[in-house]
């Protein structure tokens, strides 16, 4: 069915009230969108984080008479002549539209991430089959792409790899397909562990991957390579546990770091490792290094 979409410019302190009012006025759904594409990181339990400048999108049936709704919103001071747009939306198969926009992606020289509904571009390449889901990482975000390109640049033959904060398992699975002998994935979220296992099964590597919650992973495990694509704050706080799993002269990659956070994260690791030049992708970056010899 066709729809009408009402976009209203809001602030983080009134966006939820606007959402409530749109639902009261008959909106079938309400969505919050950042006006400036600023990242919002994981909220605390029970906390709702919104951007300082938020667009509230209300979706209405196309047969809805919008004039009384606009009048009601105007009377409450929610909308004015300059802060809203009313758009008709054509009827589409939205699932297929979304699938159409997700294509195989190449990272480095050998590695491709491919959705299941498209043929692989290069059957002789290293192909990881991964469909985009609701969370965890599929390669489309710069932080994941930075880590995938780094893994592709390494000789992982016979190496042990730790994926710290494995999410979808995309980095762990890529490491296995790039030749790693043993890979462990650790995540605090049981759903991420399940997602990693499901994706490993789709890629035929479930017998080679070990997945653990932090408290359950083998304490004697040390890796040749560690990759941690999480966030700047936990990367700073967890320098000990992250590097404790890495051999002397082992290599590591850290991502999930904004450009302005790079120096503060790198500084924490400089006491334990030699740090390479930082790699940037738009506003995000990747920090790599080699731990000191024993």
TrEMBL record:
Domain of life: Bacteria
The entry's keywords: Cytoplasm, Methyltransferase, Ribonucleoprotein, Ribosomal protein, S-adenosyl-L-methionine, Transferase
EC number of this enzyme: 2.1.1.-
Residues binding S-adenosyl-L-methionine: 144, 165, 187, 229
Any Pfam family: PrmA
Catalytic activity annotation: L-lysyl-[protein] + 3 S-adenosyl-L-methionine = N(6),N(6),N(6)-trimethyl-L-lysyl-[protein] + 3 S-adenosyl-L-homocysteine + 3 H(+)
Function: Methylates ribosomal protein L11.
Protein name: Ribosomal protein L11 methyltransferase
Organism: Alginatibacterium sediminis
Lineage: Bacteria, Pseudomonadati, Pseudomonadota, Gammaproteobacteria, Alteromonadales
């Amino acid at each position: 069915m066709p729809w009408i979409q009402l976009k209203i410019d809001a602030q983080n302190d009134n966006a939820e009230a606007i959402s409530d009012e749109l639902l009261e006025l008959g909106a079938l759904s309400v969505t919050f969108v950042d006006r400036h594409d600023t990242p919002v990181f994981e909220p605390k339990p029970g906390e709702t984080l919104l951007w300082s400048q938020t667009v509230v999108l209300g979706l209405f049936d196309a047969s809805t008479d919008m004039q009384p709704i606009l009048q009601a919103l105007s009377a409450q001071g929610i909308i004015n002549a300059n802060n809203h747009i009313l758009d008709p939306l054509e009827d589409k198969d939205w699932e297929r539209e979304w699938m159409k926009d997700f294509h195989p992606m190449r990272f480095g020289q050998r590695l491709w991430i491919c959705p299941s509904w498209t043929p692989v571009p290069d059957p002789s390449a290293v192909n990881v089959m991964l469909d985009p889901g609701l969370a965890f990482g599929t390669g489309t975000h710069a932080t994941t792409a930075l880590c995938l390109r780094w893994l592709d640049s390494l000789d992982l033959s016979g190496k042990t790899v730790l994926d710290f904060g494995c999410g979808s398992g995309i980095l762990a699975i890529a490491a296995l397909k790039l030749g790693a002998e043993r890979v462990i994935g650790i995540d605090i979220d049981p759903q991420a562990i399940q997602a990693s296992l499901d994706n490993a099964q789709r890629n035929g590597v479930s017998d080679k991957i070990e997945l653990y919650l932090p408290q359950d992973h083998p304490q004697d495990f040390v890796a040749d390579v560690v990759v941690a694509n999480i966030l700047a704050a936990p990367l700073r706080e967890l320098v000990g546990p992250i590097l404790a799993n890495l051999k002397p002269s082992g290599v590591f990659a850290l991502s999930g770091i904004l450009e302005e956070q790079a120096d503060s994260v790198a500084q924490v690791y400089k006491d334990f490792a030699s740090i390479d030049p930082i790699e940037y992708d738009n506003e995000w970056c990747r920090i790599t290094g080699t731990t000191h010899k024993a």
